[in-house]
Amino acid sequence: KERLITNTPLVKSKPPPICPKHEDEKLKFFCETCQHPICRDCTLLQHKDHNYGYLTDVVSDFKKKITEGLKTVMPKITECRDAASTVAKKQAELESRSKKAAD
């Protein structure tokens, strides 16, 4: 038997959530104007003049933006952790010297 080998982890896809306004409809779209998920009926009724796209596409775009943001932030987080570690060491050193001076 041949198997497809991939580097991506297996992800269980969940069915789309149900629209709270239209109980027979799944939330498959994202209203860009209102910034929340909507169903097919919502696109025709409450959001007919709004900009919207497929929810999966919007989620993918958000993931990309978050990933790019993390790439920018992670070095700064590391820098801050290093600085905090240095401060903690200096504080311990000062406390030790202060204690020796008091004795």
The average pLDDT score comes to 85
Trace the largest sheet across and list its strands. 2-1-3
Which regions contain 5 or more consecutive residues with pLDDT less than 50?
1-11
Percent in helix: 40-55%
DSSP helix count? Answer: 2
Give the percentage of residues in beta strands: 5-15%
Could you explain how this protein is built, in words?
With 103 residues, this protein is mostly helical. Helices cover 51% and strands 12% of the residues. It contains two helices and three strands, in the order E-E-H-E-H. It has helices at residues 40-44, 55-102, and strands at 27-31, 36-39, 52-54. It has a three-stranded antiparallel β-sheet with strand order 2-1-3. The model is unreliable at 1-11 (pLDDT under 50).
Short summary:
By secondary structure, this protein is mainly alpha-helical. It contains two helices and three strands.
Which secondary structure elements does this structure contain, and how are they paired or packed?
Layout: E1 27-31, E2 36-39, H1 40-44, E3 52-54, H2 55-102
Which descriptors would you attach to this protein?
disordered N terminus; 2 helices; 103 residues; single chain; mainly alpha
